[in-house]
Predict the 3D structure of the following.
Amino acid sequence: MSAERTTVVLADPSAVAEAAAQRLVERIQEATGTAAICLTGGSTPKKLYELLATPTWRARVPWARVHWFISDDRVVPHDDPLSNGAMARHAFLDACAAPGTVHLISTTLPPDDAAKAYQTALETFQQNHRTGDNLFDAVFLGVGPDGHVASLFPGSEALSERHRWVVGVAHANVAPFVPRVSLTLPCLSSTREMTVIVTGSGKRDILRRILSGEDLPAAHIKADAGETIWLLDDAAAPPEAL
């Protein structure tokens, strides 16, 4: 794990969502000009996204100057319940984001083609809107039951990718077993802050393995330019996290 990691253990998923929302808003407020936020998929962050759509939190976000990206997606239709992009859209983006600020991965193209298209979109955004070295102001990630992050699975060749920002992933280690498109470690790390959200007792064992130093994808994630925050709830936190 990165020496820059800070672990925060909170009472329950609702408290984790509140803390994550606070960090997201702070990073947006600190950004000069356009802010760039990278979202994650899966079930864990849904509570955060739904919170952002509530009147109190919605009023705190300057939506017109925030662009939204996603760490990975499954190659399924955008309205499929398995789509990470669809989950984020339905939870808050469709209702809250300004026109032209949501950048999702195409799931109608083959994975490698979709990866190239998303890399082009990221590069274009960086050229037009970013003045520093970091692509994102904040990246949010979860951790899979096997220790994967985004769609970077244990043993995947994509973990050693150092040049491309986005890759096609032909095979998933966990359900749903469909092809994916994922940002790579260098791309995810190009951020001012990274927040990892982990809740539930089902994640306790994999967190123990990560914290003990096992070589899993989640052990290699960090923000290149700032802090890496792990937000855990009591049910997920092993003794090593306390």
